[in-house]
Design brief:
Blueprint (H helix, E strand, L loop, with lengths): L1 E7 L7 E7 L7 E10 L2 H7 L16 E9 L11 E4 L12 H4 L15 E5 L3 E3 L6 H5 L1 H14 L8 E5 L3 H12 L3 E6 L2 H9 L4 E4 L7 H7 L6 E4 L6 H7 L5 E4 L12 H6 L3 E4 L5 H13 L6 E6 L3 H9 L6 E5 L5
Parallel strand pairs: 8-9, 8-11, 9-10, 11-12, 12-13, 14-15
Antiparallel strand pairs: 1-2, 3-4, 3-6, 3-15, 4-5, 5-7
Helix pairs in contact: 4-5, 7-8
The structure holds NADP nicotinamide-adenine-dinucleotide phosphate.
NADP nicotinamide-adenine-dinucleotide phosphate (NAP) binds next to helix 1, helix 4 and helix 5.
């Protein structure tokens, strides 16, 4: 049996090569999946460019997110059966509890081994979660990294309550899921984005007001006013360029969820404001499998709309990375794997 897959053989988009590899039977505790769809996250682009981890062993199959069907199970597997529809879990070794260095070293499509840009893969049965009936495979392929990160920021760590006010930065994968989870939690969501078209997308998903950070580069006051001085949580994906303003606009005792570092890794921000207003800085790194399963149950009851920017066939996956690199996308970029099996 064969798998068609995209391997990163050297850093850079030119290092991506479509290859066919023989794939065997799953061993004890393993499953073989026939993947139908994968999706890109920013870290996948950073991995390809050698920025995420310059020491990443190559070749590696990029991407953590994917979903499909269990095609074969190895001895001793009881979690899933042949024919089950499943999604991959991002940190294959983080099942529950507090994060540890060992658990965090298991991210698929990187330190945890080959990822999901492949038509078939063999993984530990512990690395997959069964999909509820109500969730289709394409939706599921968008969820493992971006949606679970958003869920952790809004629900698990952010503990957003009805009546809270949340600031969502950007219209990428994580941000549009965070916006939807915040609205579902009964919060007022304020958006921050770079264009009127993107602001309209945020309003369609339930943002009550949107600030354009190109027109208003110092947006902290505007956001604080829109929140009537009571901004409970900021979903910060900008990092270096946004953290100072995030700290300025959040209420005393509020939380800044540190999710991304799109504008740089080292920030200068007002420490006194954080200390004297007792602001909580909460790093977020995806989540554990129990949280993933809780999120899937929640989505099955109250569906969300994974904003799918564009679909690419596996043969054209390079163009998908180029689209992300150009910041041309809104929401998730999907790779269709079913056509090529
Ligand atoms: N910690 C985690 O567990 C985790 C998980 C997933 C992702 N991340 C990180 O979160 C960030 C977003 O990931 P993603 O996959 O959602 O990326 P993405 O889909 O590529 O989205 C990026 C979006 O962020 C906005 N943006 C770009 N530069 C910005 C800046 N300087 N300041 C503010 N906003 C900016 C843009 O939207 P607008 O034009 O609308 O502003 C852009 O489309 C990345 O840094 C990624 O590495 C972290």
């Amino acid at each position: 049996m064969d798998a068609r897959r995209l391997e990163l053989t050297s850093f850079g988009l030119d290092g991506l090569a479509l290859v066919t590899r023989a794939i065997g039977e799953p061993g004890a505790g393993e499953v073989r999946l026939r993947l139908e769809a994968a999706s890109l996250n920013r870290r996948d682009l950073l991995l390809v460019e050698g920025v995420y981890n310059p020491k990443q062993a190559l070749p590696v199959v990029p991407c953590s997110d994917g979903a499909g069907v269990v095609e074969a199970v190895g001895p001793g597997v009881t979690r899933v059966a042949v024919g089950d529809r499943v999604a991959l879990h991002f940190f294959t070794g983080w099942i529950s509890g507090e994060p540890t260095s060992d658990k965090l070293a298991t991210a698929l499509g990187g330190p945890g081994g080959d990822g999901t840009l492949t038509t078939r893969m063999i993984v530990s049965a512990e690395a997959v979660v069964k999909l509820p009936e109500a969730i289709d495979v394409a939706t599921a392929a968008t969820l493992p990294c971006a949606a679970l990160t958003a869920w952790s920021a809004i629900v698990e760590l952010g503990r957003v309550k009805p009546g809270d006010t949340v600031l969502i930065q950007g219209t990428g994968g994580v941000s549009l899921f965070a916006l939807q989870f915040a609205v579902q939690a009964g919060a007022k969501a304020i958006g921050l984005t770079s264009s009127e078209e993107r602001a309209a997308a945020m309003r369609r998903l339930g943002a009550s007001a949107v600030v354009n950070y190109r027109e208003t580069p110092k947006w902290a006051n505007a956001v604080r006013d829109l929140a009537d001085g009571r901004l409970d949580l900021v979903v910060d994906v900008g990092g270096a360029e946004t953290l100072d303003q995030s700290v300025r606009c959040v209420r005393p005792g509020g939380t800044v969820a540190l999710i991304g570092v799109l504008s740089g890794n080292f920030a200068t921000f007002n420490l006194s404001l954080s200390v004297m207003r007792q602001v909580r800085l909460q790093g977020v790194t995806c989540g554990d499998r129990e949280a993933f399963e809780a999120m899937l149950r929640a989505i099955a009851v109250r569906p969300i709309d994974p904003v799918i920017d564009r679909r690419f066939p596996l043969d054209d996956a390079r163009a998908a990375f180029e689209r992300m690199k150009a910041n041309a996308h809104v929401g998730k970029i999907l790779i269709d794997l079913s056509e090529t099996t």
